[in-house]
């Protein structure tokens, strides 16, 4: 599991300077488990961006990890009508998820989280 923390909102807004329409992608595994990029956090980020004057064209949270290119590609295709109008994408995942999304779209992609370290879960 990759441990992440949310970036300061002002830093995220700085990334999005010059972009009006944003699509958000959360990670359904690591970031969701850690409470930094699951559905709750992705919805909250969409709310904050809207309050800051950005248009959120939509959002998804991957069922698998955002770094799973096969599943993320499928979700992006299924949500094409919301993804295509976006000027930029904001990803709530570790750096691997951000890189995966960036490899699948032609729009600019920015991270909403900081990747801290790889952790091992013990039962």
Description:
It is built from 6 helices and 6 strands. The protein is an alpha/beta fold and 123 residues long. The strands form 2 sheets. Strands 3-2-4-5 form a 4-stranded parallel β-sheet, sandwiched between helices. Strands 1-6 form a two-stranded antiparallel sheet. The protein is globular and about 45 Å long. It starts with a strand and ends in a 5-residue tail after the last strand. The mean pLDDT is 95.
Strand content: 25-35%
H/E element order: EHEHHEHHEHEE
Straight-line distance between termini: 14 Å
Strands of the largest sheet, in order across it? Answer: 3-2-4-5
What's the gyration radius in Å?
13 Å
Helix-and-strand structural type: alpha/beta
Strand segment count: 6
Low-confidence stretches: none
In helices, the fraction of residues equals 25-40%
Overall 3D form: globular
**For the residues shown, what is the average pLDDT?**
95
Number of helices: 6
Described by strand count, sense and barrel closure, the largest sheet is: 4 strands, parallel
Question: How is the topology of this model organized?
Answer:
Layout: E1 2-6, H1 9-15, E2 21-26, H2 30-34, H3 39-51, E3 55-61, H4 69-78, H5 80-83, E4 88-92, H6 95-104, E5 109-111, E6 113-118
